[in-house]
Design goal:
The protein is of the alpha/beta class. Helix content is about 30%, strand content about 20%. A seven-stranded mixed β-sheet has the order 5-4-1-6-9-8-10, with helices on both faces. Helix 2 runs antiparallel to helix 4. The C terminus is likely disordered.
Length: about 450
């Protein structure tokens, strides 16, 4: 009597390249971030291959390709749906890994070689050692009973209460047999005895760009991706980035002022307008303006427009202006003079509102304003940081928190900017300041 050979385990890597918290930092999806010249996705695949896993058993669930792996485009969108689909694809023992994780060699060895029960999970019980992720996480799942996994995941995907739960890691507790409310701590005692947890504390994940920065600082390893903003040689002038949406009259007055300043003050500056899908007369008006850079795009929001402006810029110094605001007649000269005459990475300026007295900032506050237009920056200060394009509110503050801290800075006493409170009252920022938008992004 012949014994049926046990099916080889398949290793599925979740890597669709659409992580909303990353936004293609340095111009690439996080799976393609390079550490010391090797992408974290390829590194994981290489380590699996070195453990003897065949190419046909290493499956990338996403759009990426690797010579040591097979690519499989899954039909599902959410992690929960992909989890269910993987069991159907595998029809046998499988493991799930994450494309945004920097796995240690020891972790991959354990994932491939350690005996598995019905289901187990490789888990860390404390914040990541190098990236500082503040919560415990599972980094790898292995299952030899694929039908049980498929049926359990189907139960999760058709349970309204579980679908409504925003915490993805609730899936892990459910799979481990912990189906009560104690989901904020690792299940040490109350999981199914056929399941197991391997406690691992060295693998790191790159959820956010700042995770990568901390990882590099802690380990001494370097990210070798070039920023999409730093490949060109920077010129010795100010690049002014102006996102515009349906602000034709205000924008024309602003542009006339800036164009005039370059002539009267004899100071070079680059003016970049990103026309973000305007439906008024903005497009026609911009066509009449010479010697400025105009980029027309479909409406994507102010964060996306600023990112386009940063990529198009060529100056060593950067400033932002909102299309419906007002700047002084000496705006270009003042910003250029101050940023080039001082050894600072950024300078902040006091500003005025059209309906109030001028407002001054506290120079000792690391982030004195949540408005990016209240500053002038050196290009090195920005360091490839992009605005997060899915944030409708707070994208300014988020970007500033990544760009400003730890850099040389000072406060100017020159008032060069007026926030026009009465212009475009239906804009998102005006509605926010009036309190109509109550809740910021978590």
């Amino acid at each position: 009597m012949t014994t049926k050979k046990k099916a080889e385990r398949k290793y599925y890597i979740l890597a669709n390249g659409e992580g909303t918290r990353w936004h293609n930092y340095r111009g690439v999806p996080k799976q393609l971030i390079e550490i010391e010249g090797e992408t974290i996705l390829h590194r994981m695949i290489r380590l699996l291959s070195e453990e003897g896993v065949k190419k046909e058993n290493i499956i990338i669930c996403g759009k990426f390709k690797d010579e040591l792996a097979t690519t499989k485009l899954t039909k599902s969108k959410t992690k929960r749906e992909v989890f269910e689909e993987i069991a159907t694809l595998a029809k046998g023992p499988f493991a799930i890994l994450y494309g945004d994780c920097y796995y240690t060699k020891e972790c991959i060895h354990e994932v491939v070689t350690r005996p598995v029960k019905k289901f187990d999970e490789f888990y860390t019980t404390h914040p990541n050692p190098n990236t500082g992720c503040p919560w415990p996480e599972g980094y790898a799942h292995r299952c030899d009973d694929w039908e049980w996994w498929r049926d359990t995941m189907h139960e999760i995907n058709t349970n309204p209460e579980l679908i409504a739960t925003p915490k993805d890691w609730f899936i892990h507790w459910w799979l481990l047999g912990v189906k009560d409310e104690r989901i904020n701590t690792p299940p040490v005692e109350n999981f199914n005895p056929d399941h197991d947890i391997a406690w691992l504390d060295e693998t790191d994940d790159f959820d956010f760009p700042e995770d990568l920065a901390k990882f590099c600082a802690t380990t001494g390893k370097k990210c070798t991706n070039k920023s999409p903003f730093t490949e060109k040689e920077r010129q010795d002038y100010l690049s002014i980035i102006i996102p515009a949406y349906n602000s034709c009259d205000k924008l024309e007055a602003l542009l006339d002022n800036l164009i005039s300043q370059r002539i009267t003050n004899g100071v070079q500056a680059e003016i970049i307008v990103i026309n973000d899908g305007s439906t008024d007369g903005t497009t026609d008006m911009l066509a009449t303006k010479g010697n400025i850079k105009v980029i027309n795009q479909e409406n994507k929001g102010v964060a996306a427009a600023r990112n386009v402006g940063l990529e198009a810029s060529a100056g060593k110094y950067i400033s932002f202006i909102d299309a419906d605001d007002i700047v002084s007649d000496s705006y270009i000269k003042t910003l250029t003079t101050e940023i080039t005459s001082d050894d600072c990475d950024w300078i902040t300026f006091p500003w005025a509102k059209t309906d109030t007295q001028q407002i001054f900032f506290d120079v000792f506050n690391p982030i004195p304003s949540a408005a990016v237009w209240a500053y002038v920056y050196t290009w090195e200060c920005i360091d490839g940081n992009e605005f997060r394009e899915d944030w409708r509110i707070g994208e300014d503050l988020d970007w500033l928190k990544r760009v400003l801290p730890g850099k040389k800075h000072r406060m100017s006493d020159q008032i060069v900017y007026t926030y026009d409170w009465n212009a475009n009252p239906d804009s998102l920022s005006k509605r926010y300041n009036r309190g109509e938008i109550k809740q910021e992004r978590e």
